[in-house]
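Entry type: protein chain
Record version: 2
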Amino acid sequence: MWRGGKPGDFELRLKFRIDGGNSGIQFRSREIPDWDTRGYQADIDAAGQWTGALFEHARGGIAMRGQKVVVDEDGTKHVAPLGDADELLTHVKKNDWNDYRVTARGNRITLAINGVVMSQATDNQKGQAARSGVIALQMHPGPPMKIQFKDLRIKIFDKPPTAGQKGGTQ
C-alpha cells in the first residue's frame, strides 16, 4: 500500500508480469483491516478474463476489456464498444513484462496496457463513485501465483481538467 497520499486525479504507470492467478492495482480505494482495500481495481489475471477491466468491489465489473461505459447517478450502465476484447488481449504479453497505465481524471477512468486502451468508464453513481483514495497492489487469494511490479511512477494532477486542458504536477 502506498502511503504517499490519497490521490484523486492522477496517472499511474507501472510494469507488471503475472504467472498464474489474479492480481490488480487498487486505486481511489479505502483501506480496511488486514492490509486489504475496497474500491476501484485495474485488473490483471493470467487467464485473460479480467486483464484490462475496471473492477470495483461493491459493483463487480464496471467496464470490461473492450468496453466504454457511462454509469448514471442511479447506477444505470450504458455500454458502448471500445474494441474487441479478444483482439485487445493480443496486446498483452503472457509471462512477460507489460506496461499498465491507469488514468483517473474527475469521473473518468481509462486503463491502457502496452499503449492500447483496454477499457474506459465515466462513473457518476451517487454514493459509489470514488474521487480519491489509497493506491495498493493486490495479490489475490487462491491458487499458486506470482505477480511482479516494477517501475512505478505517478503524476498527480493539481485539479480536474477543463475542456482542452492538460497538465499537473508530479
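Comment: The chain has one helix and twelve strands.
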